[in-house]
Amino acid sequence: MHDYQSLIRHKLSVANHRLQKLISLGISTVGWILWIGGTSIVTLVGPVMFHYDRECQLLEMQQQIIQAQQAATTPILN
To answer: Which of the 8 DSSP states describes residue 76?
Structure first.
């Protein structure tokens, strides 16, 4: 009976150790994936958004220039 209990304790100890290693590996893997994803977003999507915002500003400026030209009155020559 004593050998059976020690065998069960040993197997539970081994299972506990393996589970802890698996959880630790899972957490580090998720952290690694999040780090890669965040870095990719900053390096790939950031410049695209910056360029898009700059282009929108240029288009707004062009629209303002066109509106100013259309609103300008032309002198009437007699």
So the answer is: P
Q: How far apart are CA 22 and CA 27, in angstroms?
A: 9
78 secondary structure, DSSP code = -
The mean pLDDT value of the chain amounts to 91
Nearest to 36 by CA among 25, 47, 44, 24: 44
**What's the confidence (pLDDT) of residue 2?**
73
User: Nearest to residue 18, comparing CAs of 10, 7, 6?
Assistant: 10
pLDDT beneath 50: ranges in the chain: none
In this prediction, residue 71 carries a pLDDT of 80
The CA distance from 25 to 18, in Å, is 10
Cut 0.70: pTM above it = no
- State how far the Cα of 3 lies from the Cα of 9, in Å rounded to an integer: 10
